[in-house]
Specification:
The chain has 2 domains: about 15-75 and about 320-415, Aspartate Aminotransferase, domain 1; about 80-315, Aspartate Aminotransferase, domain 2 (3-Layer(aba) Sandwich), CATH 3.40.640.10. Helix content is about 40%, strand content about 15%. The protein has 11 helices and 13 strands. The strands form 3 sheets. The chain has a 7-stranded mixed beta sheet with strand order 4-10-9-8-7-5-6, sandwiched between helices. Strands 1-2-3-13 form a 4-stranded mixed beta sheet. About 45% of the residues are buried. It binds pyridoxal-5'-phosphate. Pyridoxal-5'-phosphate (PLP) binds next to helix 4.
């Protein structure tokens, strides 16, 4: 570095400048899924602010947001009531020598809201919650094997990371795999685990990157429940991504299947860092014996934000509203695709939709679609499920569809 600021040309955006600086002081410029190499062309890496369903990047461009911070934003960015609750708590203190009253109140809220929950514990990230569930299940059963669906995401710790870089086979020694929604393969995995099965761990629905989303079938959910009862193992639902968006009581409630343990995070504090484990009385004793903790797990501000988020989610039928908005988006996308003669597939719950293009193995069409729509003000994702929030209104969806129409035109011009 010479110390002279580089001249700001048209190509020298604030985002590009920050990427260049990050390359020097952050390995690879960014970690994990937010590495620029994984973003569609033209996508910003750096953001400056957000409000409601709109995010603004560091160059001042504003987008209608269909990623909601990859899940945490449920009610809209900077929701006034949630932020007021957070600020009131912040004025009294956040990181103290132990938890505040708000921890007990929040646990009471979860127990009142979630039918399977007799108790709750709090952490910071989704990975903390999924890992705590597994630890509690092993403590309760005295067994080792954990059955997980192949390709499901449960976090980025060594036992569950989707990457193998820096990870040993011993880190995953006691994981056995089955296919989501495939009862036979689940039974085979249970048989394979024999007397050593501690838990079946499943996401609320199948939301693996780059493939069509799948809701759980009733048969599969019931088979998972029955297999755990037979084996004396824990049924753990990973609600980290879907929690509060499909059903505030728990994503499998409508299927009539209740887990023993659930892992929650992302949306529960509308953007504040918080995770939770809820469990039933059978697992209470084990949950009191395991040693789990974290320097910031008692943070009172996030808990105050969560109390407000849960209350609003319960009182205003957030799942119903975001479902209606998701359906409006889905119908509009289908119409536009059809008009442009472009074949697409839409899958998943409308609250967390995914649109994939046919004959698009490398997501080239998806990326062109997204890059073009982005230039017209809509922030979509080509391969990961997207997220609706309570701040999305019909007019926002319609505006985003206008942006999408440019995306479809660009894909049509690609041909193939
Ligand atoms: C995001 C996610 C996690 C991990 O949560 P972090 O907060 O990133 O640790 C676990 N499970 C699912 C289903 C997720 O989507």
């Amino acid at each position: 570095m010479t110390g002279h600021p580089a001249p700001l040309s048209e190509t020298q955006t604030a985002d590009a400048g920050l990427r260049a600086r990050a390359q020097r002081v952050v390995p690879g410029g960014m970690w994990g899924h937010l590495n620029a190499a994984r973003l569609p062309e033209g996508y910003p890496q750096f953001f400056a602010s957000a409000e409601g369903c709109r995010v603004r990047d560091v160059d001042g461009r504003e987008y209608i947001d269909f990623m909601c911070s990859w899940g945490p934003i449920l009610l809209g960015h900077r929701h006034p009531e949630v932020e007021a609750a957070a600020m009131a708590q912040a004025a009294r203190g956040d990181c103290l020598n132990g938890p505040g009253e708000v921890m007990v109140e929040l646990a009471e809220d979860f127990v009142a809201l979630v039918p399977h929950a007799d108790w709750a514990m709090f952490q910071k990230n989704g990975s903390d919650a999924t890992t705590s569930c597994v630890t509690i299940a092993r403590a309760h059963t005295g067994r080792r094997k954990v059955l997980v669906a192949r390709g499901s995401y449960h976090g980025a710790l060594p036992w569950c990371s989707p990457s193998v870089v820096g990870i040993t086979s011993e880190d995953r020694a006691h994981l056995l795999h089955f296919e989501y929604n495939d009862v036979e393969s689940l039974r085979a995995a249970v048989d394979q685990a024999g007397q050593d099965v501690a838990a079946v761990l499943v996401t609320a629905f199948r939301h693996d990157m780059g493939r069509d989303l799948e809701l759980p079938t009733r048969e599969f959910a019931q088979a998972a429940r029955a297999a755990c009862v037979r084996a004396g193992a824990a049924l753990i639902i990973d609600e980290v991504r879907a929690g509060l968006r499909l059903d505030v009581r728990g994503s499998w409630e409508a299927l009539g299947v209740r887990p023993d343990l659930s892992a929650w995070s992302k949306a529960i504090a509308n953007g504040h860092a918080l995770a939770a484990v809820t469990g039933n009385d059978q697992f209470r004793e084990a949950a009191s014996r395991v040693f789990v903790t974290g320097s910031f797990w008692c943070g009172a501000v996030a808990m105050a934000a969560a109390r407000a988020t849960l209350r609003i989610a319960r009182e205003t039928d957030v799942p119903g509203h975001i479902r209606a908005m998701g359906l409006r988006l889905r119908e509009g996308l289908a119409l536009l695709a059809n008009r442009n003669g472009v074949a697409i597939r839409q899958s998943g719950p409308p609250q967390m939709p995914l649109m994939l293009f046919d004959a698009d193995p490398e997501a080239r069409k998806g990326r062109v679609f997204c890059s073009t729509a982005l230039r017209h003000g809509a922030f979509f994702h080509p391969q990961h499920n997207m997220f609706l929030s309570a701040a999305h209104r019909s007019a926002d969806i319609d505006e985003a569809l206008e942006a999408a129409s440019h995306g479809f035109r660009a894909v049509r011009e690609l041909g193939g």
